[in-house]
Backbone:
């Protein structure tokens, strides 16, 4: 069953954070975790296998920074295609090692890490070329969808959506990163975009799923509010990947200390807001995803009983 068909029948469970898991696996600060798809594939497989064991239905490929623009900063530009295709293969293997359970691989395109002209030095043409190259590699590798995540600027998001659709992605997920504003519970992207503006843009640009992840202060509580605001202007399936609570600084390290039990307490409200895919972002671990699986299974069982 294709991803967009599956979400009509049940809520799918995504995975959790990749960056912190890479660090725990030994990636040095500033290292290129995406290069591990080729140089240390067993470490990526172990991370994604842990999420599958925890109950994930969807795995996001380890390609957040695998556009040519990002990889060239690590002198990895010549391996763009190989890094992206290897990431798809690793995620697929993580599911296959778990038997015959169906799983979906979402090819990850993250921000290119800069500003386009006229605000920065990166040309639009260069961004278009980089995203087209990455999208083609992910689609040819066999992804079930492309997720364009942690986006703050609609211009950049639009280029990536167009690239994914041109490459023939089976489905396209647009995911925005919002920040909690000082005044009340209002949220905006770094570039000032509201949830309503983002959802409308993504729907009009051809996304199949509208999503949110990460951002300053974006915990599960605010994810509920953003999902409701998405739903008020768009009828597309919603994906939500909130952080594991709010970060704290200890010994010059940013930590997310919300436990799986604490994070999962708000999951039912997020489900009531109408999400079709739910996972975790910064600070979330396989333990958080396992607790999410327990809640999803319980809610599903209760729903069947009432029916």
Residues:
């Amino acid at each position: 069953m294709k991803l967009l068909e599956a979400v009509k029948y049940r809520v799918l469970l995504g995975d959790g954070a990749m960056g912190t898991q890479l660090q725990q696996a030994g990636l040095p600060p500033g290292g290129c975790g995406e290069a591990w798809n080729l140089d240390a594939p067993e470490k990526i497989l172990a991370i994604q296998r842990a999420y599958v064991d925890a109950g994930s239905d969807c795995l996001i490929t380890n390609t957040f920074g695998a556009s040519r623009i990002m990889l060239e900063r690590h002198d990895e530009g010549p391996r763009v295609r190989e890094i992206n295709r290897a990431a798809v293969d690793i995620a697929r293997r993580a599911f296959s090692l778990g038997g015959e359970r169906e799983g979906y691989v979402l090819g990850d395109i993250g921000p290119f890490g800069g500003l386009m002209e006229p605000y920065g030095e990166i040309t639009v043409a260069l961004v278009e070329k980089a995203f087209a190259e990455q999208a083609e590699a992910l689609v040819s590798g066999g992804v079930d969808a492309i997720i364009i995540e942690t986006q703050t600027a609609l211009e950049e998001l639009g280029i990536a959506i167009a690239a994914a659709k041109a490459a023939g992605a089976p489905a396209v997920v647009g995911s925005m990163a919002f920040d909690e504003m000082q005044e009340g519970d209002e949220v905006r992207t770094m570039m000032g975009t509201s949830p309503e503006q983002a959802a409308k843009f993504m729907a009009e640009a051809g996304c199949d799923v509208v999503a949110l992840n990460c951002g300053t202060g974006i915990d599960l509580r605010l994810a509920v509010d953003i999902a409701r605001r998405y739903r008020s202007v768009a009828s597309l399936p919603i994906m939500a990947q909130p952080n594991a609570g709010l970060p704290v600084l200890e010994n010059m390290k940013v930590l997310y200390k919300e436990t799986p039990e604490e994070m999962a307490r708000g999951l039912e409200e997020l489900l009531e807001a109408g999400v079709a895919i739910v996972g975790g972002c910064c600070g979330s671990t396989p333990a958080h995803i396992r607790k999410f699986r327990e809640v999803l299974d319980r809610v599903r069982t209760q729903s069947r009983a009432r029916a």
User: Anything to note?
Assistant: The longest strand covers residues 145-151. The domain at 24-302 is CATH 3.20.20.330 (TIM Barrel). Residues 159 and 266 are 34 Å apart (CA to CA).
